[in-house]
Amino acid sequence: MNNIIEKANLEVFAETLLELGKKNKDIIVVTSDSRGSGKLVPFGEKLPEQIIEVGIAEQNLVGISAGLSAGGKTVFAVSPSSFLTARSLEQIKNDVAYSNHPTKLIGISSGISYGQLGSTHHSIHDLAVLRTINNITIVVPADNFETRESIKQSVNYNKPIFIRFGKKPMMKIHNDNQNFQIGKAIKVLIGSDVTFIAIGETVQRAVLASDILKKEGISSTVVSMHTLKPFDEKTFLESLIGSKALITIEEHSINGGLGEKCASIISQNNINIPFKILGIPDEYMINGSQSDVLDHYDMEPEKISKIAKKMLK
Q1: pTM for the full model?
Q2: Do 22 and 166 lie in a common domain?
């Protein structure tokens, strides 16, 4: 890996949406006082007839977006993930998923993106609560490439979908000719010693940990599980063949997210492998920047590599 740092996924989302909106007048953006934080100011300036501001009213946001979707519009409902998936969970369940409207729910500033604003603004619950709702796809892009492709594919996606973005500039993980498909995980690296299954921005940390391990003669498989639901069980199980340890990494609670999904699969398939879930534990979180918090909870690349080496022993 060249470790090239690109833009924040959130910026690429907004740029891609503007490009698509210029070509398709049916694309409508609905925001809940999040035009600025969602990097959508240029969209509003260039396409003022295609953006609707509802103010700080997330339940209205989802209801209005579902109604526009029912009327044939291609709707992107944009709001901070912590509020979108908590305040308006009932509307997501009933107005979008149960009613089967292909609304694109965009959770911005997700995970620990709000840093020092603390637990009230962190969204470490969103994947867990949405996983339990029938008829909704969950996508968490790892880098600019996955972001761009997920938004492009979501335009014609014919069922409800939730896409989650953070605010931090991201490392370039994929080549431009990489194939991307919603629902199909990507093997970033292939090795024989330890398997890392990561989602969203934590894929970068898995790659950096694998770089450290490589210098010590340890090879890693790194899988970007960008779609949490539907889960690509086939690629997941393939990544475990011959592996000596499994580590999952997520910017989310250890309860109900990626790690527990993987635990369920390996348990039901009677797979015996040393296994560790890295995420946010069930406790009052420390306060600090996104990097400070993730590093504290053992998701710093050096710590990840040490955990892997200990498991391999």
Answers
A1: 0.96
A2: yes
